[in-house]
């Protein structure tokens, strides 16, 4: 290797170390503005709210890969809503890693992990599989679809390392046990929030006619969540209608079936027709 080649390689490594966006560029991507914002963010807590299929996994995988290459001791943990989602995220990471594998060879690899000489990334579904790690980087993928109790169980993993947390999601339908993502997004306290609007994805061009067709096909609430990246009003945890529905559900659970007259049961009998 001559001096000119050596200098070129050193310059490329130096540029890559300084600019995480190079991970995407060297893989042939033209990153969207919001992806650049995520990769350049220095915040300890970042929340990305995005429509479907806008590159959340790709951008977060590039962020994690950059740390694996240039921050010795990086232990990245990816928690996803399902095993299939976890495998897909890891597949994306390995695709981005391929152009750099000669310079930074892997020493271990499974369907759900990639290990380099001085760093490691593990991708698992939420639940018991996500416990027992001490990550320096924690990514919660599609956090709006993961039960609150499972998110609460994995967050303490950052206490020992004071690591970074990246939360990603498409707005999710309202459920009583899945409110963490909406509450955190609405509060924003201590978080850098990246709102991926259609305008921030110039590589994806959708006409007004296509938007209206999708709206008619899937309905207003789902359209706003999946195509605009916005929670529908009825997905607000503080919405009185949700509170009312919860109350009604509890009341129904106490109502006996017709014919149940056991006054000692503690249930509320149905009114009988006169």
Helix and strand topology:
Layout: H1 3-18, H2 22-25, H3 33-40, E1 45-49, H4 56-70, E2 75-80, H5 83-97, E3 106-110, E4 113-116, E5 120-125, E6 137-141, H6 148-154, E7 164-169, H7 180-187, E8 192-195, H8 208-218, H9 220-226, H10 240-254
Parallel strand pairs: 1-7, 1-8, 2-5, 2-6, 6-7
Antiparallel strand pairs: 3-4, 4-5
Q: What do the pLDDT scores average to?
A: 81
The largest sheet is:
8 strands, mixed
| Tally of DSSP β-strands | 8
Order of strands, widest sheet: 3-4-5-2-6-7-1-8
Q: What this model shows, in words?
A:
The chain is α/β, with parallel strands linked by helices and 274 residues long. The protein has two domains: 3-229, P-loop containing nucleotide triphosphate hydrolases (Rossmann fold); 239-274, no CATH class. The protein is 39% helix and 15% strand. The protein contains ten helices and eight strands. The protein has an eight-stranded mixed beta sheet. Residues 235-243 and 261-274 have low confidence and may be disordered.
Looking at this protein, list some descriptive labels.
274 residues, alpha/beta, Rossmann fold, eight-stranded mixed sheet, 15% strand, globular
């Amino acid at each position: 290797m001559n001096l000119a080649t050596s200098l070129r390689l050193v310059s490329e490594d130096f540029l890559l170390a300084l600019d995480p966006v190079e991970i995407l560029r060297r893989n042939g991507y033209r990153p969207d503005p919001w992806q650049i914002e995520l990769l350049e963010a220095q915040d300890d807590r970042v929340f990305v709210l995005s429509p479907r299929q806008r590159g959340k996994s790709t951008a977060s995988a590039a962020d994690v890969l950059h740390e694996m290459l240039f921050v010795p001791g990086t232990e990245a943990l990816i928690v996803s809503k399902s095993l299939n989602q976890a495998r897909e995220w890891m597949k994306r990471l390995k695709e981005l890693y391929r152009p750099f594998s000669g310079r930074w060879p892997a020493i271990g690899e499974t369907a759900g992990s990639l290990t380099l000489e001085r760093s490691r990334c593990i991708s698992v579904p939420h639940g018991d599989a996500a416990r027992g790690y001490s990550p320096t980087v924690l990514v919660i993928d599609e956090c709006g679809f993961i039960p609150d109790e499972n998110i609460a169980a994995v967050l303490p993993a950052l206490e020992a390392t004071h690591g970074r947390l990246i939360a990603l999601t498409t707005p999710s339908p309202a459920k009583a046990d899945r409110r963490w993502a909406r509450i955190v997004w609405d509060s924003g306290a201590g978080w850098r929030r990246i709102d991926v609007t259609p305008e921030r994805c110039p590589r994806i061009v959708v006409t007004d006619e296509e938007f209206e067709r999708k709206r008619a096909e899937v309905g207003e609430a789902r359209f706003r969540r999946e195509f605009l990246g916005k929670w529908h009003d009825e997905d607000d945890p503080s919405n009185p209608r949700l509170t009312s529905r919860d109350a009604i559900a509890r009341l129904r659970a106490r109502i006996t079936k017709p014919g149940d007259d056991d006054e000692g049961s503690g249930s509320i009998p149905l009114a009988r027709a006169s």
